[in-house]
Amino acid sequence: MIIGSKLYFFENLPSTNTYAAKLLKKNKLPEGTVVYTNYQSAGRGQTGNIWESEDGKNLLVSIVLFPSFIIPACQFLISITLSLGICDFLKRYIPACAIKWPNDIYVNNDKIAGILIENSVMEGVIESSIAGIGLNINQDKFISDAPNPVSLRMINGTNLNLKTCLNKLTSDLDKKYNQLLAGNFVQLTEEYVSQLYRLNEWCYFRDQNGLYKGRIISVTSDGRLQIERRDGKTGNYAFKEVNFIL
Ligand code: BTN
C-alpha cells in the first residue's frame, strides 16, 4: 500500500495542502503520506476559491505523491487517477457519479468533491505532487456561495464514520495509483472519459466567442477537453477556457 502508508491527523489546520507542503520541505516523507483534518480555517479550492467544510463533517485530505515517472506534459494523468479513485469510493454508497472536467466529482448536477493538485516541477521532472481532496460526507447545509454543493448524507440520509470513509478512500485511490505506476495510461484515460459528466450529450457551453451547442467527445493527453460542435468542428479547451451551462 502506498496511499495511506502514513497518516497525519490534526483536529484543525489552515489547509491540509499547505501543511503537507510545509511538512515535505522539512522532512523526507514516504510516498502516499496522508495529511487530514476535521476543520480547515483557510481551505483552498481551485482558482483561489475557499473550500467550505463544516467542522468534523467531511473528508479533508492531502496526499503526498512522487510521480516522477510522468512527464510534466502528461501531469493530467494525476487528475485522472484521483478522480477515478474518488468515484470508486462513492460507488460504494451511491449507484452513480460523474467527473465534471477537469476534476470535480458530481452526483447528478451537484458537486460532491473537489480536487486541488499542486505539483512541484524541477528540471522537467514532477518532483512532488500534493493532491488535496475535499469530499463532502455528512454536511447537511452549505452556506458559501458555491452553486451546487451536495454530500453523501444529503443523498442517502445516513451519517457515515469519517475514519472508515478515509480508509476506504485511501484504499480505492491506492488501487488506481498502482494502475498509474504500472503505466496503464491509456486504460485510465479511457475510463476517465467514459465517466465524464455530460459525455456525448448535446448541451450548451460558453467559450470566448459566446454560447454554443456542443458535446464532449474526449480529452487530449495534456488534459484539454474536446468538444464537438454542431458543424462537426472540434475545439480543445484548457482549464477555464470553456464553461458548462448547468
Ligand atoms: C475545488 O475547488 O474543487 C478543489 C477543492 C479542494 C479542497 C481540498 S480540502 C483538502 C485540501 N486542502 C485544501 O486547502 N484544499 C484541498
Question: Which keywords apply here?
Answer:
alpha+beta, 12 strands, 25% helix, 246 residues, binds biotin
- Profile the largest sheet: 7 strands, mixed
Number of strands: 12
Into which percentage range does the β-strand content fall? 25-35%
- Overall shape: it is globular
Radius of gyration computed on alpha carbons: 18 Å
Please trace the helix and strand order, writing H or E for each element.
EHEEHEEEEHHHEEEEE
Overview of this structure, please?
The protein has 246 residues and is an alpha+beta fold. It contains five helices and twelve strands. Helix 2 crosses helix 4 (162-181) and helix 2 packs across helix 5. The mean pLDDT is 97. The chain binds biotin (BTN). Biotin is lined by residues 15-17, 40, 43-46, 49, 51, 60-62, 104, 114-116, 132-134.
